[in-house]
Design goal:
Length: 425
């Protein structure tokens, strides 16, 4: 089998290194020799994390796509422009494609998968979701007897790394982000990580696999971790929670809910103890009940593990391409985000005057929202009170109305912070 790689950075370099490290057993498991014959790179002279003596480096990726001797293309360069054109043309040229590119699959996957089916080739993307955790295989095969009720997880390693370092070491957001970039965890554009876009790409893929529907990336309600402050982390800890960035997809009354956002998770829940770059995905099936998967969500060799697993399946001929019936998939109607029910954390900065807390709780009560816990911190130098509230279960739309009303009072000093709280039971 001759393989061409597009992009020899963190993941591409990791693939070459893992293939070298585990050559004997990968050959045994796939039943064939895997030869990386070509790699497309931007700079042929750059020092890389992997050896390149036996690989022909080219600056023209189309040289790989149009090479009749190459059987499988690994798209590991990222982006949705050139990468899409290359993947499309590779498929049209009859090549199988393995990609780690969640943006590409989330945005163009419906079209590309249909194209692959029409051309009798495979387009596989295990590395695109939760890095080294074989979560797509679990949904496609291990849990195929179930109707999936819920998929929820920590699916962006960079965000989890930042939140963990902020909580454990009181480190500054920007400083930790720089470290995540240096470690090769972050996307080329790190706003994709910290604004939740990368997690939304992954959730769209997970939901499509879990519920057997088309990819509906535009329907994911998305919020990142960029507005989480040290004060939120401290309040959450005191209230018995950890702040995690979660992606959640579930089907309720025939409608699909997909949202990624910072979430307060009870300290006692397993997900709350998933730290650093680790990812974890909880899947609830109607036969198996709750299952939980844990592993590195980013990094060279962990991601390479998933890319190579797809490659081995292609070589062995064990890809079960029809399990999702891609041609017949239909959209599932999406639920209005206002209808999502949740417990909420509110953080307020108010002037410290008599009756403020009573007024806030009364406004919430007018919207049928009761207060489960409240912490009021010492008054700061500006005579302001710092308040954190945990509500009971309520509809997002009702909570938003109550907060909008609270926000109009002149005792409110800044926008009220709202964060979802999930018990995940
Ligand atoms: N880094 C990680 O831990 C993970 C990354 N991914 C995905 O894997 C893909 C690759 O990510 P990384 O390896 O981290 O990125 P990277 O930036 O380390 O590597 C990408 C490589 O592609 C090369 N490249 C880009 N455009 C090119 C072009 N036109 N011609 C030739 N070479 C080109 C770049 O020069 C770079 O060396 C992305 O889609 C990313 O989202 C997925 C899971 C984990
Ligand atoms: N930037 C991503 C890399 C893996 O998908 C992340 O941090 O999770
Ligand atoms: Na994976």
């Amino acid at each position: 089998m001759n393989i061409g790689i597009l992009g020899l950075g963190t993941v591409g370099g990791g693939v070459v290194n893992v293939l070298n490290k585990n050559q004997a057993q990968i050959t045994r498991r796939s039943g064939d020799n895997i030869n990386i014959t070509h790699a497309a790179v931007r700079d042929t002279t750059q020092i890389r994390i992997c050896p390149t003596e036996d690989i022909k480096l080219t600056q023209d990726p189309f040289e790989i796509i149009n090479n009749n001797d190459i059987d499988v293309v690994l798209e590991l360069m990222g982006g949705t422009g050139l990468a899409k054109d290359l993947v499309e043309q590779a498929i049209e040229n009859g090549k199988h494609v393995v990609t780690a590119n969640k943006a590409l699959i989330a945005i163009h996957g419906n079209k590309l998968l249909a194209l692959a089916k029409d051309n009798n080739t495979h387009l596989l993307f295990e590395a695109a979701v939760a890095g080294g955790i074989p979560i797509l295989k679990i949904l496609e095969q291990g849990l195929s007897a179930n109707q999936i009720e819920l998929v929820a997880g920590i699916i962006n390693g960079t965000s989890n790394f930042i939140l963990t370092e902020m909580r454990n070491k009181g480190r500054d957001f920007g400083d930790v982000l720089k470290e995540a970039q240096a470690l090769g965890y972050a996307e080329d554009d790190p706003t994709f990580d910290v604004e939740g876009i990368d997690a939304a790409h992954k959730l769209a893929i997970l939901a499509s696999m879990a519920f057997g529907c088309e990819l509906q990336f535009n329907q994911v309600s998305t919020e990142g971790i960029s507005k989480i402050s040290g004060e939120d982390i401290t309040f959450a800890t005191e209230l018995g929670y950890t702040i995690k960035h979660l992606g959640i997809a579930k089907k309720l009354d025939g409608k699909l809910q997909m949202y990624v956002h910072p979430t307060l998770v009870p300290k006692t829940h397993l997900l709350s103890n998933v730290d650093g770059v680790m990812n974890s995905v909880l899947v609830k099936g109607n036969a198996v009940s709750e299952t939980l998967y844990y592993g590195a969500g980013a990094g060279a060799e962990a991601t390479a593990s998933s890319v190579i697993a797809n490659l081995i399946d292609i070589i062995k001929g064990t890809v079960n391409h029809d399990i999702l019936g891609w041609k017949s998939l239909k959209n599932i109607p999406n639920c209005n985000t206002g209808d999502i029910e949740s417990i909420f954390y509110l953080r307020l900065l108010t002037t410290d005057k008599l009756g403020v807390l009573a007024d806030i709780t009364a406004t919430l009560a007018n919207h049928n929202i009761s207060v489960e816990s409240v912490i009021q911190k010492q008054i700061d130098q500006k005579n302001n009170a710092h308040i954190a509230i945990i509500t009971n279960l309520t509809k997002t739309s009702e909570l938003n109305k109550a907060v909008a009303e609270i926000q109009t009072h002149d005792y409110i000093q800044e926008d009220v912070k709202i964060i979802f709280v999930k018990t995940l039971n």
